[in-house]
């Protein structure tokens, strides 16, 4: 927390660097403004200026966030949607971001994760393995009906 309040020009310059480093949501920028101890009445003007200068774009942020979490952590659509909602991203931008995930890739990764997790729990009985694998995949954000289908496919492959 900054001890003294910054002028709007100083805050704008700091936020330009902040947004240039990586994509940010509007909420993250507003939180940073509070952290910089900038006057509240200046917040909207600063955010507007960042949007006009194309430092801040909610749709671009949502697409980058969803793509990154999908590629790096293999989060499912539910988890990505939840995390974007926590960052107060609009429903339109969330929908746009989730459309970037290819259905074939999504199902392939889900099947692979289901098979790997199910195989890693070989010390447990069938029903426990099934339950633990299901819970793991649902916690990663995959849809329950897709999880059940993927597990049934992976179990039929191992028999």
Task: Provide an overview of this structure.
The longest helix is centred in the C-terminal third of the chain and has 18 residues, at 103-120. This protein has 159 residues and is mostly helical. It has three domains: 8-56, Orthogonal Bundle (Arc Repressor Mutant, subunit A); 59-98; 103-158. It has nine helices and no strands.
Low-confidence stretches: none
Fraction in beta strands: under 5%
Could you give the count of β-strands? 0
Give the CA-based shape. Answer: elongated
Compute the number of helices: 9
Q: What value does the Rg take, in angstroms? A: 21 Å
Structurally, the number of domains stands at 3
Helix content: over 70%
| Distance between the first and last residues' Cα | 59 Å
Q: What structural class do you assign from the helix and strand content? A: mainly alpha
For the largest beta-sheet, the strand count, sense and barrel status come to: none
- Average pLDDT works out at 91
User: SSE order, as H and E?
Assistant: HHHHHHHHH
Chain-wise SSE layout:
Elements (H helix, E strand, L loop, with lengths): L7 H14 L4 H10 L7 H10 L5 H16 L3 H10 L4 H8 L4 H18 L5 H14 L4 H15 L1
